[in-house]
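As the work plan foresaw, the team has encoded backbone shapes as discrete tokens. One protein thus recorded appears below exactly as we store it.

:::
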Amino acid sequence: MPIIEISSLTHPGAEIFSSLTEAQLRNRLEPDKGVFIAESPKVIRVALEAGYEPVALLCERKHIEGDAADIVARCGDSVPVYTGDRDLLGTLTGYTLTRGVLCAMRRPQAPTVGAVLNEARRVVVIDGVVDTTNIGAIFRSAAALGIDAVLLTPSSCDPFNRRAVRVSMGSVFLVPWTWLDGPIGSLRESGFKTVAMALTDKSVSLDDPALREEPRLAIVMGTEGDGLADATIEDADYTVRIPMAHGVDSLNVAAAAAVAFWELRAR
């Protein structure tokens, strides 16, 4: 493997880890050239197992033959491994949280909504959620609690955002997802009933037996502050609330998603 010693994060090729913004990494103008950054050996291994293509590694020297030895070997001779002093690499924001390894990976082409929904029974629609931590946590719960696919409205945060990937612990590589290219109500054409998670006078309890009997459900989660738009709630087949105690009226969107995923999972 090509081990490249660097003394500056502006070294040609290494700037992918240090100076490119999330928007530049995503490369909206040329999606086939887009990349994302995976952090820590565990997350990188999940991505490689899922078939994602590595572009470059940034690694502390001690990890090349240590924690990341299997990753370096698996990436092969065509993937450069940039390495340098810990103090240099430590100037990267968040680098000390990664256990010494970053991997730039090729961003795959987003699948169609139809392909993602093909065999799905339970999906989540993330509508306008912009906090990267919440996106990562929702994906982790989706993977753990039996959600078959994730759809995101264009106003939502990119699941391949560096922090979202890290918080998800690689779950963004395990659950099929794509961007929703039409109104949420269009999911009915694929046989889904929509479940808006919202507090209204018409909301039914999350444990309502009718929900479990639905063959295909799309659980719609709204923004961190305002929740779902009124029009989205009005258009939903069900409006659902989580029963709570002590006068608490809401949960963080990631926590609410986990509760909803568990209760509404396909039996």
